[in-house]
Amino acid sequence: MTRVVVTFGTYDVFHVGHLRLLERAAAQGDILIVGVSTDALNESKKGRAPVYSQDQRMEIIKALRCVDNVFFEESLELKRQYLKAHKANILVMGDDWRGKFDEFSDMCQVVYLERTPAISTTQVIEQIRT
Ligand code: C2G
Question: Is 72 in a helix, a strand, or coil?
């Protein structure tokens, strides 16, 4: 049976931390489907617009060898619907979300993977700015 992995993220100013997370997510199953946060969701979540638009962020994610399919994540409240629609067997999230998605373990396996230390979009933006 094909094991479908689903993960979510903004992936703004794409960096190696994002790549490693996606590669490790893909290795958990056979197919990796990525929910890319919309600009509107990001603004409401982080209080600022992403540097790259949702279309560009999605284009980058879709082009990765480890990614099979993409969709837009429009709301944090719709996780269950997204997981169902994409027939997820495994939900993968970075461990900054540890425990936050355990409620979905009734419908799929929930796995939190360690983040890559010392790199983040915020840090890249700050480094360029200074
Ligand atoms: N990540 C990582 N290592 C880093 C930075 C990020 O492993 N140094 C991972 C995050 O844990 C996440 C993914 O890369 O799994 C995407 O990171 P973000 O774009 O910051 O995603 P986030 O804002 O956490 O969006 O529905 C939940 C959200 O959409 C998740």
Answer: strand
Report CA(17)–ligand 1 centroid distance (Å): 8
Residues 6 or more apart in contact with residue 99 via CB below 8 angstroms: 112
Taking only the tens place, the pLDDT of each residue in 92-124 is: 999 999 999 999 999 999 999 999 999 999 999
Ligand 1: residues with CB < 6 A are 8-11, 17-18, 21, 37, 73, 76, 93-94, 96, 115-116, 119-120
Q: Where are the beta strands (DSSP E) in the chain?
A: 4-9, 31-37, 69-73, 90-94, 109-113
Please say whether the beta carbons of 22 and 60 come within 8 A. Answer: no
Place of tokens 């990796």: 32
The amino acid present at 54, given as its one-letter code, is Q
**Percentage of the residues of the chain whose pLDDT score is greater than 90:** 96
